[in-house]
Specification:
alpha/beta, binds NADP nicotinamide-adenine-dinucleotide phosphate, Rossmann fold, six-stranded mixed sheet
């Protein structure tokens, strides 16, 4: 009997997870299929119930269902529980459905291994206050970041992110900014930053601000590492702006592959074939390149 895993989200048009997960399964010659399970939020409870028996043994979860699945599971690991969002579901040997958040480990592993950056004690400016921004904040706190500034179009959402993390609220370590030009406080934070992370969807292909950089009109300091979570296109307008300013850069593809690698290991119990996954991910991105 073929075993199935897949991706629960809606819509799923441009996801490249099926390409690199299937490549990893095929690498081991497993009789497994990774499928697109396009599921609007109101159909998620029934779909998650279908993971309890039969040949579907787990899933990834993406927008807009990462929080929707939380109350449907039997247990969460510490990270998923702290963030309140799940991106990986595993049916354990005892039949329980357990939720994990591998975005966090993917984010920080890419930062350390591909960016050569250790966050402990460093000044970080985070752009964005959505779901992925929450995963970034959690990961940076776990890694003992020095200072954290959060800039977002909607200041109230940035405030909610801070309030959601007791440690941030308690230590007053987070300063909040809007993305508007002309804020001297924000310019100073950018000047002091060792790392700038973009967790907005600005610059994403087919997104709300395709072809744009979240830091248009702002100045980056040469040497600041600029990490864009947007992975499609691989070379985003922010990364181009950063390179022109003399900054080292890291794109979002590594985080995507690493979060998928941890999910693969949790489902199959086998070491993820990272290079195979990167090659398949790049191949899939190339095939849907916007240019
Ligand atoms: P989300 O929860 O929808 O949050 C979107 C964020 O972008 C919010 O901060 C929003 O600001 C901001 N934003 C959207 N359109 C904007 C605009 N026109 N001008 C200014 N700000 C705008 O999305 P998410 O799940 O966090 O994902 C954000 C990005 O990260 C996406 O591009 C996604 O592909 C990428 N991502 C990558 C990985 C990876 O593995 N590399 C993983 C997760 C996400 P407001 O609060 O003001 O609306």
């Amino acid at each position: 009997m073929t075993t199935h895993v897949g991706l629960i989200g809606y819509p799923l048009g441009h996801s490249i997870s099926p390409a690199f997960q299937q490549a990893a399964l095929d690498h081991y010659g497993l009789d497994w299929r990774y499928e697109r399970w396009e599921t609007p939020p109101d159909q998620v409870p029934a779909f998650v119930a279908s993971l309890r028996n039969g040949d579907r043994v787990g899933s990834n979860v993406t927008v807009p269902n990462k929080q929707v699945v939380v109350p449907l599971l039997d247990a969460l690991d510490d990270t998923a529980s702290a963030i309140g969002a799940v991106n990986t579901i595993v049916r354990e040997a005892d039949g329980r459905l357990v939720g994990y958040n591998t975005d966090c480990t993917g984010f920080v592993r890419a930062l350390r291994e591909q960016g050569g950056f250790e966050p402990a004690g460093k000044n970080v400016v985070l752009l964005g206050a959505g779901g992925s921004a929450r995963a970034v904040v959690y990961s940076l706190l776990q890694a003992d970041v020095g200072t954290l500034g959060i800039a977002n179009r909607t200041l109230g959402r940035a405030r909610q992110v801070v309030d959601g993390f007791a440690r941030l609220a308690a230590e007053q370590a987070a300063a909040l900014y809007t993305l508007e030009e002309g804020s001297s406080h924000f310019e100073e934070a950018l000047r002091q930053a060792h790392l700038v992370v973009n967790a907005t969807s600005i610059g994403m292909w087919h997104g709300p601000a395709e072809g744009r950089s979240p830091l248009e009109g702002h100045t980056l300091q040469p040497g600041t590492l600029v990490y864009d979570l947007v992975y499609n296109p691989e070379q985003t307008p922010l990364l181009t702006q950063a390179q022109e300013a003399g900054c080292p850069t890291l794109g979002g593809l590594a985080m995507l592959v690493y979060q998928g690698a941890e999910a693969f290991e949790r489902w199959t119990g086998k070491p993820a074939p990272i290079e195979v996954m990167f090659a398949a991910a790049r191949g899939a991105l190339g095939m849907q390149s916007p240019t």
